[in-house]
Design goal:
The structure holds two protein chains of two kinds.
Chain A: E1 2-6, H1 12-25, E2 32-36, H2 40-46, H3 67-74, H4 88-97, H5 105-116, H6 129-151, E3 155-159, E4 162-168, H7 176-186, E5 192-195, E6 200-203, E7 208-211, H8 226-235, H9 244-250, H10 265-281, H11 290-294, H12 311-319, E8 344-348, H13 353-358, H14 365-377, E9 384-388, E10 395-398, E11 401-404, H15 409-426, E12 430-434, H16 435-443, H17 449-452, E13 457-458, E14 464-468, H18 471-476, H19 480-499
Parallel strand pairs in A: 1-2, 4-5, 8-9, 8-12, 12-14
Antiparallel strand pairs in A: 3-4, 5-6, 6-7, 10-11, 13-14
Chain B: H1 2-15, E1 50-51, E2 57-58, E3 60-64, H2 91-103, E4 109-113, H3 120-137, E5 143-147, H4 154-163, E6 166-168, H5 176-182, H6 188-205, E7 223-229, H7 236-250, E8 254-259, H8 277-292, H9 297-302, H10 315-322, E9 329-330, H11 336-339, H12 347-356, H13 364-370, H14 374-377, E10 381-382, H15 397-401
Parallel strand pairs in B: 3-4, 4-5, 5-6, 6-7, 7-8, 9-10
Antiparallel strand pairs in B: 1-2
The chains are: A alpha/beta, B alpha/beta.
The structure holds iron/sulfur cluster.
Chain lengths: 501, 413
């Protein structure tokens, strides 16, 4: 049996040095002992290293006697005295585990270190008993650090230097040193101290210092704002939703004695049933008198069958429209946009994701394609009335995105109520339909786009109609050559439109 | 005297704010106060500073600026026709309370909402002023969540996003028709438009790789919303469809579900029953499946009865019991997506399994160390040394994996 003495309960460097030496000497885990100075005298009597656990099934046991030979060839000569290397993953976990309060943590770490030679990937095998055990303890430590960030309660004091802040805290594991920098980053302009039974941390707005263990009476007993905090805590609790177990799962009782608000818990719990019952049993009161005078006006939805005499009125009609179910999942109805006396009306299929959010037609990727093409064809977009066959965005949610879905004939027919009114109000000379859905809305029948595109046809209302592809079709073409070709055809259609204006 | 008044106000305005379920202080950009003149930090992960006996955490000072309101929403304690005690904080009072609480490490920041006073614009202006004062006068770098007043001018929404970490507008009722009936002064499309505006602004503020100039910050913690459960008759499947549509449409970080809870001086148009907490819990689980496990709303709905999720078993288990032909799954071979569908295996367990199996062939005891609920997992997997045999298809499987007693709908106490 070999014993190494560590300087403190959290002496990672001391353990690391001793463990490395043991390891190089080939001291097996069962023969290695680590004691903390001061605590050592007592634990020496009762402490005994647990026997090494049985090997994980399936993995052959490493021949222990060959330890020294195995170690040798792996090292370069100059590293022989220095020691040997282990993965960073192990060191990181070990740094956490050291802060755990369990007495056998050093032994667990040494056992892992011992095994790492034959199983260099061991730390990645998180299902391994020792690794799982170490990770579990590391998790407890990190949780204790998290709880420290949450449950430290500063109290204000005055001293020669002015205002300062002192907290008494009892962490579940020895995480004071580890967690103090968090408070430094959060409160760099406050002088604060956190006192704990393991040690203390002091921040004077310039430097972080660590100090010896403290006792509770060294911290102030009260703070006048605490009454406000308790008032808040009690008021934010909803007695109709009592879930004490959930609370305790997150705020373990061990912390309660140092949380000022926790003293209210028994009373809040005890009174909750009565409070809820009284609330439920109390009959509704008469509405108070202010009601009539102060209430905001009720929202009235525009009628579905509104016949608009102006474009803004038409916009309101579209907002309130329930003629088909598409309004439900859309953000808003997207009405056409452009001058009332426009000579050209362009009709797309439906608003897309961006249009739905912005409430304007053709502002998304397809809109940009259209804008560029219009400019190239010598048509000023601000002279054009741009709209869609269907005014609400039809889509299907897919995670954080919405997939466009083509409106069906029923929806297009329902929405013609609005498109026909737009055509009636604007009275364009030419109506350009983009794609099959727009074609259906403008011509009243589903056209074959590739066959019928580019032809000028007389519409019943006296305007001239033309059909071309939708600009999003150009965006979807995968092949560069096809894209150039198709865009040129699209440009031809636009130029032809310009000539007939 | 003034102190007592302020405490009284605090109790009224915290009480009035507690029906809003959102509380998280996570998901914002990382920052601290090093080199600053004030205080505060956010480190990405939210910190819950206390828990109340209703099991909910206190991470923010969640209060209303005022509980006066000119709206008359039947489900709300602050509606104009209610007889509750009214109070109003000054901007400075909220700022002082926030800083005082923050310095003592009681909170991560402020969640500020308000009844609608005078007008949407006026109310939003006041909320923005609080955040602006905290940020600009006190260099406060903690978390700020502002409630959007949807009717407010888009410019005010923009200003709010400049100072706040998170913005939220509550949809409140899953059914739009019900909103029109129970909250006649609210307009669902106005709420959605505000959320749409926030999404566009959030996306604009996301720095593009090629651009050098950083766009001005806008609500780096994104936006959230709340749906009240059990006040309008909408079944769970409809609620989940609504959530899916909200996540997809507005890039929400969270949809909160709040079981409709009796309120003092309640409106006679709503039932005064105890809140359906178990139902709320199942909806949160289902929501979780949509956000992290690749389930779609209709898939979760497959296992529902009459549109309602099973109260006795969690929605993933309910789905698996309904789709037994998909099981058992070989933990040593199955793709991650399929492992995520095994009842009892969480994202973390699945990631561990995927990582470990590069080095070891897993046995049942290995899986046991990687999950907390082996009993639930066992019938649905095979390992090197385990196969469930006929167990997966056993008629009594549900009884074996489900808790013995039907859970109480009501209080868990
Ligand atoms: S798509 Fe058209 S018909 Fe359908 S609801 Fe919207 S405006 Fe009305």
């Amino acid at each position: 049996m070999r014993t190494a003495t560590l300087a403190s309960e959290t002496d990672f460097d001391g353990w690391r040095k001793a463990a490395r030496a043991f390891r190089l000497e080939g001291i097996e885990p069962a023969q290695a002992r680590f004691v903390v100075e001061g605590a050592g005298a007592q634990s020496g009597l009762f402490d005994h290293s647990p026997p090494a656990p049985p090997r994980e099934g399936g993995d052959p046991a490493p021949p222990q006697d060959k330890a020294r030979d195995r170690l040798g060839p792996r090292l370069r000569g100059d590293e022989r005295e220095e020691g040997f290397s282990v993965s960073k993953a192990f060191v990181d976990v070990a740094r956490d585990v050291v802060l755990h309060r369990s007495g056998d943590r050093w032994d667990l770490l040494y056992r892992l270190l011992w095994r790492l030679r034959d199983e260099p990937d061991l730390m990645k095998v998180v299902s391994d008993r020792d690794v799982a055990d170490a990770l579990e303890r590391a998790k407890n430590v990190s949780r204790a650090g998290h709880k420290m960030k949450a449950f430290v309660r500063f109290r204000q004091v005055e001293d020669e230097g002015g205002e300062a802040w002192v907290a008494w805290f009892e962490p579940a594991h020895r995480v004071v040193e580890r967690t103090a920098p968090f408070f430094q980053r959060r409160f760099p302009n406050m002088r604060w101290s956190i006192l704990t039974p393991d040690g203390s941390a002091f921040w004077d707005t310039h430097e972080l210092r660590l100090g010896p263990p403290a006792t509770r009476d060294m911290a102030p007993a009260e703070d006048e704002i605490e009454e406000f905090w308790k008032t808040y805590y009690a008021s934010t609790f909803n007695p109709a939703r009592l879930k004490v177990k959930t609370m305790q799962g997150e705020m373990a009782k061990r912390y309660w004695k140092n949380l000022p608000e926790a003293s209210l818990i028994p009373e809040l719990v005890a009174a909750s049933t009565v409070r809820t019952d009284v609330m439920v049993a109390t009959p509704a009161t008469e509405p108070n008198v202010r009601l009539a005078r102060a209430t905001a006006p009720v929202i009235e939805r525009a009628a579905d069958d509104l016949v608009a005499s102006t474009l803004p009125e038409l916009g309101e009609g579209v907002q309130g429209c329930r003629r088909c179910p598409l309004w439900r999942d859309a953000t808003q109805g997207v009405c056409g946009e452009g001058p009332r006396e426009a000579r050209l009306m362009i009709v797309g299929e439906q608003p897309g994701d961006q249009e739905d959010l912005a409430g304007k037609p053709f502002v998304g990727p397809a809109g940009r394609v259209l804008d560029a093409a219009l400019e190239e064809a010598g048509i000023d977009r601000s002279d054009v009335y741009v709209t869609n066959a269907v005014k609400h965005f039809k889509h299907e949610p897919r995670g954080k995105r919405r997939l466009h879905k083509t409106p069906d004939a029923g929806e297009v027919t329902a929405c013609r109520w609005w498109l026909d009114q737009e055509r009636g109000l604007v009275k364009p000379k030419v109506v350009l339909a983009l794609g099959a859905t727009a074609g259906l809305a403008v011509f009243g029948r589903k056209p074959a786009v590739t066959k019928e595109r580019g032809q000028l046809v007389a519409l019943a209302d006296g305007a001239t109609g033309m059909l071309t592809v939708h600009p999003s079709y150009l965006l979807r073409l995968p092949d560069e050559q096809a894209r150039v070709l198709e865009r040129e055809k699209f440009m031809q259609d636009l130029r032809q439109v310009r000539h007939s204006l | 005297m003034a102190q007592i008044d302020l405490r009284r106000k605090l109790s009224v305005l915290a009480d009035a704010a507690k029906y809003d379920a959102s509380c998280a202080s996570s998901g914002s950009s990382k920052r601290d106060s090093t080199g600053g003149k004030g205080m505060g930090s956010t480190e990405g992960m939210g910190i819950c500073h206390a828990y109340t006996p209703d099991g909910r955490c206190v991470s923010l000072l969640k209060i209303l600026l005022t509980n006066f309101c000119i709206y008359d929403c039947a489900y709300c304690i602050n509606r104009v026709s209610s007889n509750v005690e009214r109070a109003r904080f000054s901007v400075q009072e909220v700022v002082d309370l926030t800083l005082n609480f923050y310095k003592r490490n009681y909170i991560e920041g402020l969640f500020l909402s308000s009844g609608i006073i005078r007008s949407g614009d006026y109310t939003m202006e006041q909320l923005v002023l609080v955040a602006k004062t905290l940020r600009e006068v006190h260099d406060f770098r903690g978390y700020i969540h502002l409630k959007l007043i949807p009717e407010a001018d888009p410019k005010l929404v923009e200003a709010a996003g400049l100072y706040a970490d998170r913005l939220s507008a509550n949809i409140e009722l899953p059914r739009d028709e019900a909103l029109a009936r129970l909250a006649p002064q609210k307009d669902v499309s106005v709420i959605k438009k505000a959320m749409g505006q926030v999404r566009l602004k959030v996306e604009e503020a996301r720095p593009q790789k090629r651009e050098k100039a950083r766009p001005p910050r806008f609500a780096p913690g994104g936006q959230s919303t709340q749906l009240i459960i059990g006040a309008d008759g909408a079944p769970d499947t409809e609620i989940l469809d609504r959530s899916a549509s909200l996540y997809g449409g507005y890039g929400l970080r969270r949809v909160y579900y709040s079981a409709f809870s009796p309120i003092p001086d309640a409106s006679s148009s709503l039932p005064l029953a105890k809140p359906p907490l178990m139902r709320e819990h199942r909806l949160y689980q289902a929501d979780w499946l949509m956000r992290f496990y690749g389930f779609s709303a209709p898939e979760i709905g497959e296992a529902a009865t009459g549109g309602m999720l099973d109260l006795a078993v969690d929605p993933k288990l309910a789905w698996a019991l309904n789709r037994r032909e998909q099981f058992p799954v070989d933990v040593n071979l199955a793709p991650r997506e399929m492992l995520l569908r095994v009842p009892g295996l969480g994202v973390k367990s699945v990631d561990k399994i995927v990582s470990v199996r590069r080095y070891r062939t897993l046995r049942l005891e290995d899986v046991a160390r990687l999950t907390r609920s082996l009993d639930k997992v066992r019938p649905f997997i095979t390992t090197l040394d385990w196969t469930p045999g006929g167990l997966t298809d056993a008629a009594d499987l549900r009884a074996r994996v489900a808790p013995v007693a039907e859970p109480q709908q009501l209080s868990l106490f």
